[in-house]
Design a protein that fits this description.
By secondary structure, this protein is mainly alpha-helical. It has two domains: 14-58, no CATH class; 70-201, no CATH class. It contains seven helices and four strands, in the order ββαααααββαα. The strands form two sheets. The protein has a two-stranded antiparallel ribbon. A hairpin with an 8-residue loop joins β3 (150-151) and β4. α3 (78-97) packs across α6. The radius of gyration is 21 Å and the shape is elongated. The termini are far apart.
């Protein structure tokens, strides 16, 4: 039996459809949907998906804040609040089209985007253009983070600013915290998504109202 393609130490007892060769069970578990872009047809992915999703949701739970005070909440910073708004608007728009999406899906997508920002690694892509990204919403959020810019109201040199990696992670953590707080124990429901969609609709309504212009003194 050939050795594992990844570690070259243990026996490759599992055929990896993404790599087209055999890998060991340890590498399969450690690299699955991280460094290896697993196709939906993989039996090992289907077998362990529920368990892995739960691990993703619990990951770094102890390291993240259990509450945000008014003094330290990044939403008090207009620049960071703008990035949070852009993250959530992507979720709201996606949920508006995919009506069967639940809060658990949104949390998994946020964690996916966070891990991608944090590691900045390229996945090993299966050579099949018909395969969709393994987390469509997560990819949408990640691309939004990469493209988002903050533009100051006052026109000055360097008025358009990009966001640092640490700032993206902080904003993702803030959205994850809010989503978990709203969803509570009902992550298979849509409490967070419905509240988010309603909030975005109110913002859109306010933005379309005529502005009152007062004469200058």
């Amino acid at each position: 039996m050939a050795k594992c393609l990844k570690c070259d130490k243990r026996k490759g007892k599992r055929h990896c459809p993404a790599l087209g060769q055999s890998i060991c069970s340890l590498c399969c578990g450690q690299l699955r949907e991280k460094e290896i872009h697993c196709p939906p047809s993989c039996s090992f992915l289907a077998q362990h998906k529920s368990y892995q999703d739960q691990r993703v949701l619990e990951k770094r739970h102890a390291e993240r804040p259990k509450a945000f005070s008014h003094e330290t909440d990044l939403l008090s910073d207009e620049r960071l609040a703008w990035l949070v708004f852009n993250i959530e608007i992507q979720i709201a728009q996606f949920a508006g089209k995919e009506t069967d999406l639940v809060d658990r899906d949104a949390l998994l997508a946020l964690e996916y985007a966070r891990e991608k920002v944090e590691k900045e690694k390229r996945l090993i892509i299966v050579p099949d253009s018909r395969l969709q990204p393994k987390n469509d919403l997560g990819e949408v959020i990640f691309q939004s983070l990469q493209q988002c810019r903050y533009e100051k109201k006052i026109i000055l040199p360097e008025t358009i600013q990009t966001y640092k990696k640490e700032e993206k992670i902080r904003c993702l953590d803030r959205v994850i915290f809010a989503a978990k707080q709203i969803a509570g124990a009902h992550i298979q429901g849509q409490r967070y998504l419905m509240q988010l969609i309603e909030r975005q609709a109110k913002l859109n309504e306010l933005s379309q109202q005529p502005k009152i212009i007062t004469p200058s003194s």
